[in-house]
Amino acid sequence: MRLLQALGYAGLIPFLLLTSLVWWPLLPGFDALAMFQRYSAIILAFMAGVLWPVWSQQAPFKPLAIFAVALPVLSFSAGVLPDSALLAIELQLFLLLRLGERWFGLDQQYHPLYLQLRNRLTLVVVCCHLLLIWHLLRQ
Description:
Elements: H1 2-10, H2 12-23, H3 32-49, H4 52-55, H5 61-77, H6 83-103, H7 112-138
Helix pairs in contact: 1-7, 2-3, 2-7, 3-5, 3-6, 5-6, 6-7
């Protein structure tokens, strides 16, 4: 469990670092916002993808599979939108993923420490998205 926690928290480093670099651009020519958006889409797809082994064990697999595939497709499709709209959709998709885990009963299969980790990671990711949306709307 410690390795999962360490990897989970390590996965937050790019979210936190890129959020900071959008607010305080220290690297000229580096598009921290674009990198944040890419990383966000990658992590969302990864999180939906790692649920496949859990979901494939359940009988009503079809709705779960459609849900898992829909999230990264929606994330990718949102790439044509303005930055603040893209970030808002990404934020909602991360929340939807977490709510979907609850809705489909996956929380009962998780170790309590992993469930706590998932909630914390989602909270930080959502806060990073909110900070960037706020930053963009202030400009």
